[in-house]
Amino acid sequence: MSGVVIVASAVVAAIVAVAIVLLYGRRAKARAARAQAEAEQEGRRVLAAAQQEAEQCLRDASIQAREKLLAARTEFERETHEHRQELLTLERRLDQREGGLDERTRGVETHEKELEQRKKQLEERETTLAMQEDALAAASAEQRVQLERIAGLTSEQAKSELVRAMENEARMDAAKMVRRIEEEANQEANNRARRVISLAIQRVAADHVVESTVSVVDLPNDEMKGRIIGREGRNIRALETATGVDLIVDDTPGAVLLSCFDPIRREIARLSLERLMLDGRIHPGRIEEVVGKVQQELEEKIFRDGEAAAIELGQPDFHPELLRLLGRLQYRTSYGQNVLSHSKEVAWLAAHMATELGVNVRVAKRAGLLHDIGKSVDREMEGTHLSIGRDLLRKHGESEEVIHAMECHHGDVDPRTVEAVLVTAADALSAARPGARREILESYLKRLEKLENIAGDFKGVQKAFAIQAGRELRIIVESERLSDEDAVWLSRDIAKKIEAELTYPGQIKVTVIRETRAVEYAR
């Protein structure tokens, strides 16, 4: 029974399923038909829209093509107009050039006509000149014949004489030119040497202290003289014994004199006496104590002076003993010239000249400062200051270049270096400068006076002035008594007389001035 039910149920289920399938098949066909109809309708709509869009694009393209064509036509017309304007401008320029060429052509034609006229005139003038030359040649020949007859010389002989005279004149001119060139060369060399030396002298303007062997000590009152002399002269004897200086107490009011050839001892005595007068206690024991302190202080001052001189010259690396000897030169004089000042000046002069000539400045400056170092102890040691200085420099480690330049400054040793020559020249410059030394100053003044007197002895000289340290004699003459030619001969005569009567270094320029003045007053 149950099996039948199951089979029946299955059959019913199958039937239901077939019915369902059939039902859904008919519905699917209906939906498919509707979809196909909708698709066809949508296709027709899209096709219509596409046709409308295509028509619009064609219209737009046609409008754009028309606009571009219009723009191109406008540009073409503009360019055509510009080219037309340029052509018109070129045409006007060509017309102007043609007008100018026409004017130039007319000017050239006019100029050619003038040239033709001038050519004719020149031809006529040449013809006239040719005729005149022929006439002159005939006259010259006739004149030459007459001159030969009068002078008794042929033309060849006259030419020979003329050539000989011209040769002599040319030789004289050549000799004068050679002499002038030699003088100019010497003058140029002298000018260059003077320039180097003058530059060095201008940069070194040191004052010289002219000292003597006597120092004066001012006293506050005459009563102090008695205290210095002391009871039975014991104070003055103690002071002279301690210092080695002569004290001169005379009738000079308010002063005593210290006399000694050694300036260091004289300076010790002066300082000691001044300190004793300030202290007020003057007796032999106090004198010895003060003199001892002053000696010690002066030794320190001497070292400081030497060190200061070395530093001033930019040479601080000297041996301490050389610095002390340099300081002693502060109290040493030569013909009244302070030796330390002289040494510094020589160093500066040599250094400046070495700078101008491009040689070793350090050697020149060092040798110039040390060239008189032997004078600091030449009164205590045997030998000249050159040999003493040479030994001192070798002892304290100075270089051979410095030693050689130092030992050549008096000409005892031949110089082998430029620096040695410069030190010698600087020493001569410093010593020979007017006013540096008493003897030279006196002879210098006498030479200037003699120069002016020589010029004054000639007739017609109104005034005479010796200038430029005696290197030039300037003479003013009376224009009424002497002519220009006389002034030339006067300068030669005065120069000859100076050569014959005076001894002088270098040369002296004699200048004669003659002038005429006309003065009138408007009232």
How do the helices and strands line up, and which of them pair or pack?
Elements: H1 2-151, H2 155-203, E1 214-218, H3 223-229, H4 234-243, E2 246-248, E3 255-259, H5 263-279, H6 284-312, H7 320-328, E4 333-334, E5 337-338, H8 339-357, H9 361-370, H10 385-395, H11 400-407, H12 418-432, H13 438-456, E6 461-467, E7 472-477, H14 484-501, E8 509-513
Parallel strand pairs: 7-8
Antiparallel strand pairs: 1-3, 2-3, 4-5, 6-7
Helix pairs in contact: 2-8, 4-6, 5-6, 6-7, 8-9, 8-12, 9-11, 9-12, 10-11, 11-12
Tell me the number of strands: 8
Strand order of the largest sheet: 1-3-2
In terms of DSSP E residues, the strand content is 5-15%
Q: How many angstroms does the end-to-end distance come to?
A: 189 Å
Can you give the helix content as a percent range?
Answer: over 70%
Mean of pLDDT: 80
Poorly predicted segments: 202-211
Global geometry = flat
Oligomeric state of the chains in view: single chain
Which structural category fits the helices and strands? Answer: mainly alpha
